[in-house]
Amino acid sequence: MSDLPQPASILSMTQCWDLLSSVALGRLVTSVDGHPAIFPVNFAVQHRTVLFRTAEGTKLVSTAINHEVLFEADQHDQVDGWSVIVKGTARVLRSEEELDEAEQAQLLSWTAPTKQHFVRILPLNVTGRRFQFSATLDDALAAG
Amino acid sequence: MSDLPQPASILSMTQCWDLLSSVALGRLVTSVDGHPAIFPVNFAVQHRTVLFRTAEGTKLVSTAINHEVLFEADQHDQVDGWSVIVKGTARVLRSEEELDEAEQAQLLSWTAPTKQHFVRILPLNVTGRRFQFSATLDDALAAG
To answer: What tens digit of pLDDT does each residue of B85-102 get?
Structure first.
């Protein structure tokens, strides 16, 4: 195991959106009476916003819509990883123009396509970091 | 695109821990003055607890330790996915016996190994769901 520090590196805004665009699964974090709740969602990036679909009347909708939310996506292998966090405001899309635009995104859904809302997170702040592991799995096993 | 609903199925406790054990990256969600914060962490499952390491003096430590936290891990492919959420209390391990036990876990770290704490989340509640996509990516592209 290396003793050298391997600090995280900060990602640029362009890198953040490019990496977000490379994955399909993220997590929405909302706040319910001061207690956090987390919801995995399938999403797409469109014009530097985060777009997903969800059923009506869910806890996700009631706690997220028109509120400040966090959205996180990440990926890693055995060598390094990255994580991007979007802080933003979640809005339900209602106008025909908004819905037409959202339909252009290649968006999968985990629930039935009926009675669904498109939700768009308008970003207020986007941060991303790239990590390196301080030990490989082989090292960990050898040190076991 | 199918019109049939494809509801999520609820995972058993054993399935939840087996699936958690199958991945190495999860997300810790804490609350800071009522606002949620999310931190990706590398973790291991040990005796139905979640174990990870983190540096001293971080926002993660100050907001998580001895508080109720959420921990989420998930995985998906183009057909289905799962997500497990652990609600629990985060504790820093301090005794030699606790540290010896934690060292047995095959735990990677994203930061330098010096000045690190082992943190264990003692679960209060574990929930998991398996999802199916309502449309395949091919369908989405064809509909696009």
So the answer is: 999 999 999 999 999 999
